[in-house]
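Q: I'm building a small set of examples for a reading group on sequence design. Run inverse folding on the following structure and report the sequence directly after it, with nothing in between.
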């Protein structure tokens, strides 16, 4: 079991193979400051190759998921002589962080209470499964303050489709959790955190029946093949299938089916 790193702006809880990451920066409503972002990267990198960690839940302390970019930090950088190059590097790094979240081999759940605004909404879209409360607030506000939803644009498009992404990015649309099914921005809508606990338990129960490395390989295929030619898709999928079926997991899974028993990862 991997030892989790010490962090400043996030809390971590590891329980029976499931890691909960709490954003904990109440002074800026869990904005994606440099410190919070680096904390998140450290924790995710620590568990990325640890298949004893079967899944991850992202959520926010103080009843807020994430308010997006750290605008006060942006202002201080603008006033402090920051250059275009420095903002380029910062934004490029944010793109790497979003990619890390969505490429994690574990199943990732985002639970949104309070609000997911701008980059917070983009971060939410990196998860495999999104659960929101009915009253949570959502908006992509970048264009309203003179900037662009740069790194999150393709991530949101992948979740919503281009027509919806255009509408919510170019109009500053605001909507609630109850509206998110219309935007394809949630998998479950719940009343509160208590109801989320029941939904999360059901998701975890399903995940625990699946082989952890097979989940990781499946996510690789889902995320990689849309960007390949059809021939390359077939080659990539065949290679990953061959790797899976010849692995210890693949051998155990086939044997358990033939022998009419549960596989080792689902035997608990």
């Amino acid at each position: 079991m991997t030892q989790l790193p010490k962090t400043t702006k996030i809390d971590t809880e590891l329980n029976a193979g499931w890691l909960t990451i709490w954003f904990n920066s109440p002074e800026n409503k869990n904005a994606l400051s440099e410190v919070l972002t680096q904390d998140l990267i450290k924790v995710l990198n620590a568990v990325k190759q640890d298949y004893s960690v079967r899944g991850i839940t992202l959520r926010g302390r103080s009843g807020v998921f994430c308010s997006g970019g750290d605008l006060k930090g942006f202002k201080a950088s603008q006033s402090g002589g920051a250059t275009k190059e420095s903002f380029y590097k910062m934004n490029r790094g944010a793109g790497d962080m979003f990619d890390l979240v969505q490429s994690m081999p574990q199943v990732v759940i985002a639970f949104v209470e309070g609000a997911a605004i701008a980059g917070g909404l983009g971060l939410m879209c990196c998860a495999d499964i999104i659960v929101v409360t009915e009253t949570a607030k959502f908006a992509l506000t970048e264009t309203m303050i003179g900037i662009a939803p740069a790194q999150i644009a393709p991530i949101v498009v992948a979740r919503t489709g281009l027509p919806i992404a255009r509408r919510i990015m170019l109009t500053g649309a605001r909507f609630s959790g109850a509206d998110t099914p219309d935007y394809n921005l949630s998998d479950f809508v719940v009343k509160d955190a208590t109801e989320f606990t029941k939904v999360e338990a059901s998701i975890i129960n399903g995940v625990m029946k699946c082989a952890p490395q097979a989940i990781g390989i499946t996510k690789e295929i889902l995320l990689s093949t849309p960007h390949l030619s059809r021939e390359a898709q077939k080659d990539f999928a065949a290679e990953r299938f061959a790797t899976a079926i010849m692995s210890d997991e693949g051998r155990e899974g086939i044997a358990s089916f033939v022998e009419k028993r549960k596989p080792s990862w689902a035997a608990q």
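The longest helix spans residues 84-103.
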